[in-house]
Amino acid sequence: MKATERRKELAAILSASETPVSGSALAAKLGVSRQIIVQDIAVLKAAGYEILPTHSGYLMQKSPLAERVFKVYHTKEQTADELNSIVSLGGTVADVFVWHKVYGRIEAKLNISSQFHIDRFLDGVRSGKSTELMDITGGYHYHTVRAESEACLDRIGETLAAKGYIAPII
pLDDT tens digit string along 33-60? Predict the structure, then answer.
């Protein structure tokens, strides 16, 4: 089994379990050492999986909300419209991340779910305190969006696509 396949299987095992799974049990199930499991857990966490180490094993933190990652592209001037489009349809912008050619994934937690949060974020980037992550990738970035249902996420995706914000996945 290749490393990518093993990590997918590891994520599936942890997602399906309601209780912590020990590193030894994972190693035995996947036919590798516990050291490999520790490395795989680190890779999965870096990829965005919320895996918690406990005294009795690893536990995947699950959200009760539906979740989807959208790859988007827009200008700085369109940031407010993008965020308003998501929030007005019942979404929460959990994070923003970019794939940097040297550093890999660079992520920031946002948890934007209201107009207040949007205004605070926009004030921060427009005041010059900082810049948007999309600046380092020419406007391309990803958002993890959470909502109460897949149908809600579908509406958000359709709206973003209609506005031309959905970027092609290459």
Answer: 999 999 999 988 887 788 999 999 999 8
